[in-house]
Amino acid sequence: MERTLILLKPDAVQRDLVGEIISRLERKGLKLVGLKLMSLSSELLDEHYSHLVGRSFFPEVKSFMQRTPVVAICVEGYKCVDAVRLLAGVTNSREATPGTIRGEFAMSVQANLIHCSDSLETALVEVPRFFKSEELFEYNDTLQDYVYNSS
Ligand code: GDP
Ligand code: MG
User: I need a labelling partner for 44 at 20 to 30 A (CA). Which of 58, 86, 115, 125 fits?
Assistant: First the structure.
């Protein structure tokens, strides 16, 4: 089982899309193991978006991500890192496939509603960056047997 980090960005919070997006994660069959609101510090954003530091749009991305608290989510599932990227759609919402979260609800590159880890290696760094171990839960999700039916 993999775990991946998801952030519902300030545009999702402001546009009342938090429930819609969490509902999509649940309906997909993903197991929620961590969930909270949090404000992102400048230092945390420098770390989280280190690949963008130095880009001309980085200050704008940073201030956008600090406009409201974000919803941090950790989900668990078999090969869930790639599955969640597919649910989110590509970075530029205007080019995102209809049916994906960005493709369905967004029109912007920056305000694209959701962050999700881009690989298992990234997820292994990002989950502990946003969640302390005591904020992540292990429990028996009785539907998992039906969701996966062994593979
Ligand atoms: P992601 O993994 O799909 O979220 O995309 P990246 O890791 O490449 O970029 C992180 C976030 O920075 C994106 O989700 C956007 O919110 C923002 N971003 C990326 N590229 C641009 C850009 O060209 N302009 C602006 N304003 N924001 C961008
Ligand atoms: Mg990324």
Answer: 86
